[in-house]
Amino acid sequence: MSATAYSWTTLIDVADLAHALARPEWRVVDARATASTALRVVDARYSLADKNAGAAGYAAGHIPGAIHADLESDLSDMRKQGHGRHPLPDSEVFAARLGDWGIGPDTQVVVYDAADGSMAAARLWWLLRLIGHHKVAVLDGGLAAWQAAGHALDATPAAVPALPAYPGRFDMAQVVSVDEVQARLSQTPAWLLDARAGERYRGEVEPLDPVAGHVPGALNRPFGMNLRDGRFRPVQELRAELAPLLSGQAPAQVAVMCGSGVTACHLALAFAHAGMPGLRVFSDSWSGWCSDAGRPVATA
């Protein structure tokens, strides 16, 4: 089977990734190889408690051949103000970074983080889809599952041949703006889903942002409910719980949010894995919304 015969678009399990990495045609060893049809594995580990932990963890050991992506320097533009704690990067900058990583239109990308995909594997999954790349999947269970299966890690930094900037641009129609949320506050609830934990949604605690609560009308679906023992629950279970949240709407009519636009992508991934792709993302999310004291806040 040729490398291009694979096409993982939501999740991939450890056994399939290990099998793929063992096939020589997936490995890009020098500039003469066909980088655009390679398998590219990306380590996206990140910790809110220690922003250097992801890079340190990668240096200590990663899935063989994996490159490293940092949530703040690669998957966000921290210079932007008023767009939450993890503002979207510019499309051109992200396209160039994909080229640096040897990711082209035909590259199969597999991205992982420490465990469940929420920090920040799902964010990279969504950014790639936003720029038009659909051959991307999150490793179910992440590095923890890889190690639990007895697979080795490699401390050698991966060297991959660079490609030109990715030939695509962000489809901003998939991104919900603050202005759109403001304009839709009076609409019937159920078009906006908040992926944060229930106590943060209700405004009982707020460890990260200056204001506690949620966008009026947003419904709560904690992303952790999509998981069991660090892995995504079976498709049938997810679909049974997630489909009613659409309230009869097409997925593209519903948006997801969280604290800073990271775990919202995890919820979007769960819907896609359950056969309901296309939810839009309010990328500024709660941290962007509450940065303006004039915007309404709901609790309880």
Give a description of the structure:
The chain has 300 residues and is α/β, with parallel strands linked by helices. The chain has 2 domains: 3-170, Rhodanese-like domain (Oxidized Rhodanese, domain 1, 3-Layer(aba) Sandwich); 173-289, 3-Layer(aba) Sandwich (Oxidized Rhodanese, domain 1). Helix content is 26%, strand content 12%. The protein has a 5-stranded parallel β-sheet. A hairpin with a 2-residue loop joins strand 9 and strand 10 (231-232). Helix 4 packs across helix 9. It starts with 10 loop residues before the first strand and ends in an 11-residue tail after the last helix.
Q: Percent helix among the residues?
A: 25-40%
Low-pLDDT ranges? 28-33
- Percent strand equals 5-15%
Name given to the CATH architecture of the largest domain: 3-Layer(aba) Sandwich
Which fold name corresponds to the CATH topology of the largest domain? Oxidized Rhodanese, domain 1
Cα-atom radius of gyration = 19 Å
Mean pLDDT: 93
CATH superfamily of the largest domain: Rhodanese-like domain
Number of domains: 2
| Top-tier CATH class of the largest domain | Alpha Beta
Question: What is the tally of helical segments?
Answer: 10
From the N-terminal CA to the C-terminal CA, the straight-line distance is: 54 Å
SSE class: alpha/beta
* Strand/helix succession: EHEHEHEHEHEHEHEEEHEHEH
The major β-sheet equals: 5 strands, parallel
Shape: globular
Count all strands and give the number.
12
Strand order of the largest sheet: 1-5-4-2-3
